[in-house]
Amino acid sequence: MKGIGAIPKNNTTIEERPHIGGITYRIHLHGTLIVHIEVRARRAGEFYPKATATLWSGGYRTSTTKCRINQCLDAFAIPARVIQDKGVWFLWMGGNQVEFKEGIKVEHELNYDSEAFVIPPSMRRLYDFIDLNDG
Q1: Are 31 and 19 in contact (CB under 8 A)?
Q2: Judging by DSSP bridges, how do beta strands 22-29 and 88-93 pair with one another?
Q3: pLDDT tens across 1-19, in order?
Q4: Interatomic CA distance for residues 40 and 122, integer angstroms
Q5: What is the DSSP track for 8-57?
Q6: Residues contacting 75, CB < 8 A, separation 6+
Q7: What local confidence, expressed as pLDDT, does residue 108 receive?
C-alpha cells in the first residue's frame, strides 16, 4: 500500500478525523468532496477494520477527478477502480462493474497481516496497547 501520503496534494485537501472505533478521511479536489473513507472495526472486540469509501464526482466527470478517486482507493488498498467507457463512468470491483452514481459506496475489509493496513498517526497511541501478534 502506498499510504495516504501518496495522494497528490495538488489542489487536494485531506481531512483526518479520529473517533471512537475508527477514523474518517474526507478528500476534496478543488474544494469539492470526492471521497469519504470510514475505517472502523468490524464488530466490538475485533481489530481487523473495514473500510467504507463513498465516492462522488461533484459533477466534474474529468480525468483528474477520476484519477484522484482511484489514487484514494489505492492509498487504502481498496481493490476498486473508476473507469470510463464512451463517456460513461463505471465502478469496477472484483470483475464486476456498475455505473458510477454520486454517493456510490465500496466496502473492503483490511488485514493487519498485509501492507493494506497502516495505523494513522492520530491512532497509534490506542494501538500501542494492542498486541497484534497475539493469536
Answers
A1: no
A2: unpaired
A3: 466 777 888 899 999 888 7
A4: 14
A5: --TTEEEEEEEETTEEEEEEEETTEEEEEEEEEESSTT---EEEEEEE--
A6: 1, 2, 3, 4, 6, 7
A7: 87
Give phi and psi for 65, each to the nearest 5: -65, -45
Q: Which residues of 68-100 are buried (b: 16+ CB within 10 A; e: fewer)?
A: bbbbbbbbbbbebebeeeeeebebeeeeeeeeb
Question: What's the pTM?
Answer: 0.77
Residue 76 to residue 72: CA distance in whole angstroms:
7
The answer to whether residue 83 scores a pLDDT higher than 70 is: yes
Whether the CB-CB separation of 52 and 110 falls below 8 Å is answered with no
pLDDT tens digits along 44-69: 555 557 889 999 999 999 999 999 99
Of the chain, the end-to-end C-alpha distance in Å amounts to 24
Closest CA to 132 of 50, 42, 47: 47
